[in-house]
Amino acid sequence: MFVALAFREPDAARLRRRLQGFERIVTSVFTQAELASALRRENQTLAESPLTGALLLAAPEPLTLEIEEVLAAGYLRGADCWHLAVALNYSPDRDLTFLSLDKPQRAVAEKLGFRT
């Protein structure tokens, strides 16, 4: 999602408008690596990171139980699974909106009880 914002992909304008409706934006620190990697791959730099102002979460403990819960709801690739596991750890009551442009990740987030 933040990569889409950085590269102004087709969904970026809609995404920006949607993000403006939230009081706080929270993401995993892993997002920094994903964004930096994509920028390096494309040999790009940004004047301002789309992560500016976002709360970056590090997992405070192993996410074994959260990862198992995510994968029980549906198969996801490692990074997509990680982001949902961090969301579960941050908000075990699922009282948040999980935004993703990835359809399988969004589907699993819905199965887990997150708003999407």
Give the number of DSSP strands.
2
- How far apart the termini lie comes to 13 Å
Show unreliable segments: none
* N to C succession of SSEs: HHEHEHHH
Identify the strand order in the major beta sheet: 1-2
Rounded Rg: 14 Å
Count of individual helical segments: 6
The percentage of residues in β strands lies in 5-15%
Model description:
There is one protein chain. With 116 residues, this protein is mainly alpha-helical. It has 2 domains: 1-58, no CATH class; 60-116, no CATH class. It is 50% helix and 5% strand. It has 6 helices and 2 strands. It has helices at 2-6, 12-20, 30-41, 64-73, 78-90, 103-111; strands at 26-28, 55-57. A two-stranded parallel ribbon has the order 1-2. Strand 1, helix 3 (30-41) and strand 2 (55-57) form a beta-alpha-beta unit. The longest helix is centred in the last third of the chain and has 13 residues, at 78-90. The chain is globular, with a radius of gyration of 14 Å. It starts with a helix and ends in a 5-residue tail after the last helix. The model has no long low-confidence stretch (mean pLDDT 95).
Supply database-style keywords.
single chain; 116 residues; 2 domains; two-stranded parallel sheet; 2 strands; globular
In short:
The protein is built from six helices and two strands, in the order ααβαβααα. The protein has 116 residues and is mostly helical.
Write the layout of secondary structure elements.
Layout: H1 2-6, H2 12-20, E1 26-28, H3 30-41, E2 55-57, H4 64-73, H5 78-90, H6 103-111
Parallel strand pairs: 1-2
